[in-house]
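Forum > Structural Biology > Help requests

Title: Can anyone predict the 3D structure of Alcohol dehydrogenase zinc-binding domain protein?

Hi all, first post here. I have the sequence for Alcohol dehydrogenase zinc-binding domain protein but no way to get a structure on my laptop. I'd be grateful if someone could post the structure tokens.
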Amino acid sequence: MNSDDTQMKAVTIPEFGDAGVLRADTVPIPVPGPGQVAIDVAYAGANFAEVLYRRGVVDVPLPFVPGIEVAGYVRAVGEGVEDLWPGRPVAALTIVDSGGYAEVAVTSADLVAPLDGLDIGMGTAAALPSNSTTAFLVLDRVARIAPGESVLVHAAAGGVGSQLGQAARLLGAGRVVGTVGSASKIDTAKGFGYDEVILRDRLADAGRFDIVVDMVGGSTRRASLDRLASMGRLVIMGNASGAQDVGVPANELWFTNRTVSGFNLAAFAAAHPDEAGRALRRAVEAVAKGELRVQVEALPLERVAEAHRRIEAGATTGKLVLDVAAL
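Reply #1:
Sure, ran it for you. Structure tokens for Alcohol dehydrogenase zinc-binding domain protein below:
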């Protein structure tokens, strides 16, 4: 921590642009308001959402401290917060206001999961609030998965893809298939609960599914709709390809008995923090029990630009986390 007890080290986005704009900076230490918790950050997750902030796809005030998830120790609590106290180890979603790429982050107490008594390292804990929480919410809350249903997940070797296959299994899915963009990722994805992993360009041969989860976009979105069975549900939760939006003809949906839904964790957590928090604690419990595996690679926060470049290039498997405590 900075010698000035009102300032801390952080990585900021001072202007929109490529990964080179990310800057080590000194900013004021945030103070928790009513219902909030301040956390001394040990690790922060690195996510595609933060890439979008940096590019200016999401309109955020500059300079901006990104970071949608963290693990660390409670530093202070705001008025009305119970069951959390200074020093308690936690994992937390900081996605509503961001701020995880810093020594201290503040978030709603509803979006915090205690870790004491659980055999979960801080690096692993920082890797699960966004992706693992999303996996349970997408399949259970949005797609409303039923026992025995078939599930197709794109980008199966990535951060959220690595969790969706396993969560589908825990929620009683039947056939679970993942797609990847390159053959080098097939073996990695197979370790995340998938019955089968195929190249995305072979999607037409995959059969039909009750649920398809697409975070890729572009031509994959149209192909995903074609893979839905009668009463099938396509859940859209990203556009990693950066392709132009793909329209879905409404008449086609009612002719074929199909549904298209969207899911955005930031908007959901802002509107339903209590439900997002329950899903986070459910994910933490699953990891602690060994029911959910999180593959983690840690980099020092100083290498945050490298982390962003790898995420943008699709050159990651599992999850990257940033070591903030080592500052």
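The chain has two domains: 3-127+294-323, 131-265. The first helix runs from residue 48 to 55.
Shout if anything looks off.
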